[in-house]
Design a protein that fits this description.
Elements lengths: L2 H14 L7 H20 L3 H22 L3 H17 L5
Helix pairs in contact: 1-3, 2-3
Length: about 90
């Protein structure tokens, strides 16, 4: 699946439960909470909880990108090139 398909899945899910339009602030707060839980799971070396928290954070990020209508696939290639230039000294393929 493409990143945009995950974004669309999150958008469709939020629409199905009647949750779109709440704005970014609650999602940012939830990301903070999920990150706190992720750090705890990593510190406790709990792979199942780590995996779960990563999923939760991904889903929230996909929700945010849906709220803004971002083209995540379109951002991926330029982002890869920026990272390649910054960290490898040459553009990544």
């Amino acid at each position: 699946m493409t990143l945009n398909s995950y974004r669309d899945e999150a958008r469709d899910f939020m629409g199905a439960i009647g949750a779109p339009g709440e704005g970014p602030e609650p999602k940012i707060a939830w990301l903070d909470e999920e990150f706190r839980l992720l750090k705890g799971a990593v510190s406790a070396n709990e792979p199942d909880k780590i995996r779960h928290q990563i999923y939760d954070m991904f889903f929230l990020l996909f929700e945010l990108s849906a709220d803004y209508g971002f083209d995540l696939d379109g951002e991926w290639a330029p982002g890869r090139r920026r990272k390649g230039k910054k960290y490898l000294g040459a553009p990544a393929k």
